[in-house]
Amino acid sequence: MLPKISIVTPTLNQAVYLERAIHSVLSQNYPNLEYIIIDGGSTDGTLDILEHYSGQLHFISERDSGQSDALNKGFRMASGEILAYLNSDDEYEPNALLRVGEFFRQNPSAFWVTGRCRLIDSQGREILRPITLYKNLLLSIKSRALLLVVNYISQPATFWRRKVLDTVGGFDLSLSAVMDYDYWLRISRVFPLFTIRDYLARFRFHSDSKTVRSAMEEWDEELRMIGRYAPSKVFLFLHRFHRKIITKGYQMFQRTGLFKKSLR
Hints:
Layout: E1 5-11, H1 15-26, E2 33-39, H2 46-52, E3 58-61, H3 67-77, E4 82-85, E5 91-92, H4 96-106, E6 112-120, H5 129-141, H6 144-149, E7 158-161, H7 162-168, H8 179-188, E8 194-204, H9 210-213, H10 215-229, H11 233-256
């Protein structure tokens, strides 16, 4: 029997993308699914969408203290053996949950797994393929030491067992941008990472996304967070160096016009 999967979607004023995220979950036709949406008090039509799907998912709408708070709230409500979260502007690939459920059923010693993830623009078109290929390469190397230098784990393509939550706890409320990266580092201290070579999710770049809107703030928070885990200053140096390279790469894509597709 396939394990029960609980998906949590935190959202706030993302009505323009929310229905696509919901459809990507419900259209999986996974036989043992629990879907929970935690809305932070949206005022843009989100509640109308949630009411429309009320018979197919669970949701609450109330003010919270940010994304980490919303995620912790959702996972406290969740009853599944396998847990994951999908942001309201991202999507799952078709049959992703079946692939994940089969993986965990066949690998009882695996406690978390990640797959590949495409980057898409506001219209759902794939963009920035060189960056995707680069992350795929890093994922094939995977190690905790490498994870301290670069976050090669794609958040929407990552799933974990309930024991992980019971062991390492919830998301850090003090982090507003890199709570997922922090979580991977905490998990990796206890459980080895497994991988699925399939594409499981699509991460959307758009003008209102946190990644695009607050890139420098996110990188600063990331550097402070890495300081908690780095065993020496060498890792901090390598992390800064890699960040400069990635920044140059994004700037190059901006100049060529590829990145602009994600901002429409």
